[in-house]
Request: fold
Amino acid sequence: MAVNGTKEAILDSLLEGARHWRGLRDYACDINMPLLFNSDESPLPCRETPSEFEAINSSFSSQIHALFEALHDFESLSKTEDGDEFIRKDGLVSIVRINNQSFDRYPDCLHRNFHSRRLSLRDPATLPQLWRVRELRLFPAPDYGTDINFENARPVSLRVPLELATKLPTLRSLNCPWLWERMPVAFRLRTLRHYTRPWEGPWRDERHDFGRTVQELHEHMPASLTMARLWFWKPSAFYADEDQSIKMPDLIRPDDADPLSLGLRTIASHLEQFDLRAFLTPDLFRAPVMWPRMKRLRVEFHPWCPDGTWYFVGPRGENPHPDGGFEITSEQHYPPVAPNDLDDEMDEEYAEDEGSDEEAEHRTDMFRTEPLPSKIEPLLLAFADALKGMPALEEAELFTYLAWQPSEERRREYKDSGEAPYNQDRAIYRWGLSYTTGKDGRKGLLIWQVGLWRPNEDIIQSFKTLGGEASDIEITWKSFEFTDKREDEDRRAFH
Reply:
């Protein structure tokens, strides 16, 4: 079931559901954004003002507090007069869905449809503790009516899942199938690239704040927490809407190490199962790794590294901007809050382009299919060393998806030279490795799925010693399995 509203409305819905189902197993609460009015007489300004955002944020925070207070009262009333439980014996799954921003009349200006500022939770320390919630799921409600999956989505601060988890002392699973990070979309029209820009300043600041929050809260995480799915970015189903030639930001400076990767390293020390998808650096596996409970580890990394470099290059060694990303230093990296000349220019240009054949087309340039040893080998070596700090480990994998869908110009160059690396215009495949520990007298199994590429011998030897002796590990090299699109596991995660 799903409901939204005040504490009283939520509690009534909980009680109604418990009586109908003879005990609740899960409860979904939709967090709605206040309706924005955009009349002809008083149209919304092009950019959201700070005061407007604060009102939205206040509503978000109030609804989270109302949900927790209602659940607290529901737990207090967890038995009816005849002794039947309102909550199933194995506990409650709390599902928090963040609905999109809505308007009474959609504005003509697309600046209002894409958001970079994140909603935060006010006074999290005042939230009541909930003793019967065994799983927390938090994610944006899917909107299948839009062509762009983040249009009108309101991103939530990365602090919020951690703040909520500290108020759930019996929590076993934290499940966040999209935490609102995203790459720039390679639209052909520069106006759409402008409107959908993931603003670098808020992006960088949020990752740094996540690292600080983990250090602040990790000792307060429930001891019962054993499983987490944290998927920070959401790929396209076809994974072919990026431009891998553009200069990207450096999200790490002024720090020396990636604060998000370091924060995830700390979170992992609490877990038995970790399903992670993130823009990450080898700092995730920085020594010494002490993850004594970890049994199953699944890490998907993006081919792009958050310092602005890439783990992969093109078949000919193509690597635009090899020196890293640009530094985020000024107001130009934050979304404006007042009228400005560039916004006016983009609005005029988009009005002229609207309805053209190019409007929804992408200028995709995905060509990075060859590992760059200086970048990928430190990640692989750190992963191998980290596995030695997981005495309970049963299986682990580290992987990414690579795609060959070059720009028209790049494709033409390869075709004219007769050196096309694939016999198809489009190729998507999984690149990575998996490790299964040996048991019951069987050897451990290490599977490399990296094509013809081979890491240096030091990395291979580091993996060989995982079983104690090199002879205790069986190594298999697999060829790539090409597909038209990546595995569609995301849609199932949002239910």
